[in-house]
Amino acid sequence: SIDAQIAETLATHEHTAAFQPIPISADRSISRPNWLARAAAWIGAFHLFGNTAKASTVIVMKKTVTSITAAILILGGSGIYAIHRQNESSKARVDQMETEIQSLSDQLGIQSTTSTRKNSGTGNSRKPVSVTQVSAILNDSKISSHELAQYNEFQEQLAAMDADALKSLLLDAEKISNPIHGRIAEMIMKALIAKDPAMATQIASQLIGRGSEFQFLLSSSAAVAFKAWLAKDSAAASAWYAETAAAGGFIGKNIPPNGLEDQSIDRSFARLRFAALAGSNPSEAAAMLATMLPADVIESLKTVTDPNALRQILPALSPEQKGPAANGVIKAMAMNDIDAALAWANSLGLADRERDTLMAVGIEAAVAGGKLDLAGAAERSRNLDLDAKKRSELLVSAATSVSMIPRKDEHRIEVDNSVYWDRVTERIDWLRKEAPADSADEMVGSYLGGLSYASHNLKKSLEAYETEVSRQGEIDPDLTVAFATRLSIAQDESMKAAALKLLNNLTPSEKRDHAIQMIELNR
Asked: Who has the most CB within 10 Å: 6, 13, 157, 396?
């Protein structure tokens, strides 16, 4: 059989100078291929015979993997052992290999040389999109329409997989030499959360802290998984959390929320559990306050959207905690009725500045939800007692929200169709009208930078910046620094490079030099 032939070849060359396998672990070297190694060997042999009868084919394998889905990932990594053949094979042997390999390649979404030849001129049948293809797409600075179609097709493939298959894909991803792209891992987790939030939570807690890509995954997905589990079965999720925490399962495991600071998974899950109780059992949630850090209490309550539940907890909070803790409620209310939301904020008995800051949050949410236009935002915010930073955030957020084209499907990338670029100048004029004169340029720069981050469209963002520079007749340093700073936030080297180029063209200043230093530190 083909398996026997490959095994015989491996055994023959295992101790020769021409073939030296790299051990999987310190005490175990490869002597016979497992089933997935054979699968990889088949594909390698196919490419070998499809091009030349005498060559070395590198096959990817770092650790034993558990499912066929992992082969999709494996074929994109670095080599672990090589199958080295010195003898030619007969045509019959090659034909037999091609039949089996083509079947496996079809499952993995791999375009093989034989299939290319066979399909040439006749049209290819639809093949699954592989993880390696999606990883390449996400690493491109500009996504073509063909790549966008592949990306969206991959999303559909994940949605069609069951929970066990998604779990295997995620676990196998962690084992290969080049870690799975963080955004791909997040996509897998999102599909798994929809199918089985309990499994997703437990897998996330296992993988936490195993490399930067998975840190990124867990910082955004672990909390989502546990929250979904709490919503589905609060008792089971709480019991798992308590048991795991008591056994020390969270010790030493940290995640970076929003990439800014380390946070223990224990604290993160405790906040979510507190927030869930605040909605279902406010008195029990209030009893948890003594066991939590003040900052965690505020973050937890920001997710509470029931005003009646929050009212039962507010008396136990300090005055400075009450306003921020009510953010979640006022956002939810403002999405339905902004006037009712503002009246509710006014009824909480907060100090003027805290009350008005809370109202500003509601106004931002109403604009983002399409319930309030820019004129309405300006009217309702004009008399609020806000500090300069919050007023700037409110105005920039409002201008950005109305500049974005509503997405029909939040899972799909719409690089060239996410911003009303032809109305950007109109939004800038509104900002300059509403903003204090001494901060207008900085706010315009933040607005333009925010569009670049939201749309992932560097070309259009730079064009909008250049248009505004032309309108003003000069390069304003405040506008440029703010634009470049927001531009550089995206984890995209082309955007960081563009930001540095803009800053380096400015006359040296403390603000400009600080911005350059911060971008360089984060490259």
From this structure: 396
Mark whether 258 and 368 lie in a shared domain: no
Query: Are both 305 and 265 inside the same structural domain?
Result: no
Domain identity same for 261 and 308:
no
**From CA 205, how far away is CA 251, in angstroms rounded?**
11
Residue 411 scores a pLDDT above 50: no
CB 240 within 8 A of CB 232: no
Residue with tokens 């670049």: 452
Does residue 414 form part of some domain? no
- Residue 413 in any domain: the answer is no
Q: Give the count of beta carbons closer than 10 Å to the beta carbon of residue 164.
A: 13
Structure tokens given for 39: 């699968």
SS3 473: coil
pLDDT digits (tens, 9 = 90+) for 355-388: 999 999 999 999 999 999 999 999 999 889 998 8
The arithmetic mean of pLDDT across residues 215-243, rounded, is 82
Cβ atoms 483, 502 nearer than 8 A? yes
**Is residue 55 in a domain?**
yes
Tokens coding 375: 């004129």
426 pLDDT above the threshold of 80: yes
In a domain, 131, yes or no: no
Same domain flag for 167 and 258: yes
Q: Is the pTM of this model over 0.85?
A: no
Same domain, 54 and 97: yes
- Could you give the number of structural domains in the chain? 4
Q: Which of 180, 216, 196 is nearest to 65 (CA)?
A: 180
Residue where one domain finishes, among candidates 213, 245, 272 = 272
* Domain end residue (candidates: 327, 357, 386): 386
- Joined together, the tokens standing for residue 324 give 């921020």
CA dist., res. 16 & res. 433, Å (int): 78
Contact, 274 vs 288, CB < 8 A?
A: yes
Q: How far is CA 77 from CA 151, 175, 250, in A?
A: 20, 11, 31
Asked if residue 162 and residue 105 are part of one domain, the reply reads: no
Question: What is Dmax (Cα atoms) for the chain?
Answer: 87
3-state DSSP assignment of residue 393: helix
* Residue span of the structural domain in which 159 resides: 151-272
Query: SS3 letters for 20-83?
Result: CCCCCECCECCCCCCHHHHHHHHHHHHHHHHHCCCEEEEECCCCCCCCCHHHHHHCCCCCCEEE
Out of 41-55, 211-225, 369-383, 402-416, which region has the weakest mean confidence (pLDDT)? Answer: 41-55
CATH of the domain at 466: 1.25.40
Q: Which own/partner contact pairs does 345-353 have at CB distance under 8 Å and 24+ positions apart?
A: 348/314, 348/322, 350/319, 350/322, 350/323, 351/319, 352/385, 353/385, 353/386, 353/387
Residues 268 and 162 in one domain: yes
CA dihedral for 366, 370, 371, 376, sign (positive or negative):
positive
- Whether the CB-CB separation of 218 and 190 falls below 8 Å is answered with no
Burial 269-304 (b: 16+ CB within 10 A, else e): bbbbbbbbbbbeebeebbebbeebeeebbbbbbbbb
Q: Are residue 255 and residue 287 in the same domain, yes or no?
A: no
